[in-house]
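User: Run a structure prediction on this.
Assistant: Running it now.
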Amino acid sequence: MTGSPHLALIAGAGTLPALIAARQPAPPLIVSLSGFLPDGLTPDITFRIEHLGSTLAALREQGIRELCLVGQVRRPVVDPAQIDAATAPIVPRLVAALAQGDDGALRGLMEILEEAGFTLRGAHELAADLLPAPGCLAGAVTEAHERDAARGAEIVAALGTADVGQACIVADGQALAIEALPGTDWMLKSLLVEAPESPDLTDPLGMAADWLSGPAAPRPTATRDPSLPAGGILFKAPKPGQELRADMPTIGPGTVALAAQAGLDGIVLAAGGVLLIEPERCAALAKEAGIFLWVRP
């Protein structure tokens, strides 16, 4: 991809970087951390965290002035043997940032990038159409759901104080699960149990490729844990004071499908604070599954 004279996406895994890139007036430069490549994009530059300093210098030389951090990246482990001379001066700050909570880590990284002379742009600034307007995109919300949403907002606010997560699952005012480092989909999978089934003699280890998509991925036969209260909502919102330029909460069709599989009544997103990937498809999936998708003012 030919780079824009000004903008580079620091693009992590997932489909969001390609959606952001496609919405720009000129193709941005695509820069990716090794091991976390975006779907549907070929990076122009791939770098190790130990080479961050030299990578930023190369971007400045190419005329890049704006950066957007977008996509999924797990915290890399810094290998002292791989640190180059341009990165060495910032390593203590980088290591200190990576030791903090999600928001703290990103704020530390953003300070390093801004001090290097770059202006940071949020994904929501570059693709405002992915921020859905308030209202119900699918289904209907009851007073009980509104109460659970209010409870969810309280829980996420409390999580934000500890810099832990951006989402929770609430049923009848009770927190069934809260989001932590593994993410929203992992949290939803924690509500599932494997349904009894006859053994597949052609696949005795139960590892058919059609369901094994990761260490926490459920089989399609997994259902809501019967020991849990029925129904409930997924509530997702930014933490209080969260730096949205680098970590805007996001959901997409996969999360909608998992919420339905987990037996939830619906999904609640904080208006202006959560990106919705493929909104029309998400709404269609929610309607098909009989759950609501509500953007809460």
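The two ends are 38 Å apart (CA to CA).
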